[in-house]
Amino acid sequence: MSNRIRFSFSHSHPIKSVHQQILLCGCFFLIGSLCPIIFYHTHFTEEYGLKKCSGNLQIHLNGCRVIIKALLDTGNCLYEPLTGKPVCLVEYEHLKACLKNGKNIPGLRAIPYHSIGKKDGVLLGVTADKLIFQNQRRKYEQSGCIIGIYPGKISKSGDYGAIVHPDILKK
User: Fold this and answer.
1) Is residue 87 within 8 Å of 78, Cβ to Cβ?
2) Cβ–Cβ < 8 Å for 129, 58
3) Tens digit of pLDDT for each residue in 8-23?
4) Taking CA 141 as the corner, what is the angle to CA 79 and CA 78, rounded to the nearest 5 degrees?
């Protein structure tokens, strides 16, 4: 009986076929590729509550309140260099009423940036009293945020007038 047990263990069936080995490697590759994608999707949508990447941005600045349709841009990596605070971009046209008294602009600063087609740019920035971004599922509120004033149109179609930095959504 001990010979029979030894025989069955010594003759286990390894994967002999090249096709089986390729299939097995392909399965491991597929699982290894899908896991990070699934993790990113579930983690990001749960953490930020994002099903739709647009919403309303309410800006409180200089005693004025403005509500703008905004796009959440997860690729926005613009930070103010002195404070390290994230920068949201807003069209000047929407902020004109809040900035009409140029003498009392809070936290005025120059924000350097690089973008496609613009190697060394500088945006004028201000410190907002409060920003509130609300999408379909959640409402996010931050104080002391930096707003980069964009002189032109952010969206050619006019669908939105601001770009929200994803760090604004962190509490």
Assistant:
1) yes
2) no
3) 444 555 656 777 778 7
4) 10
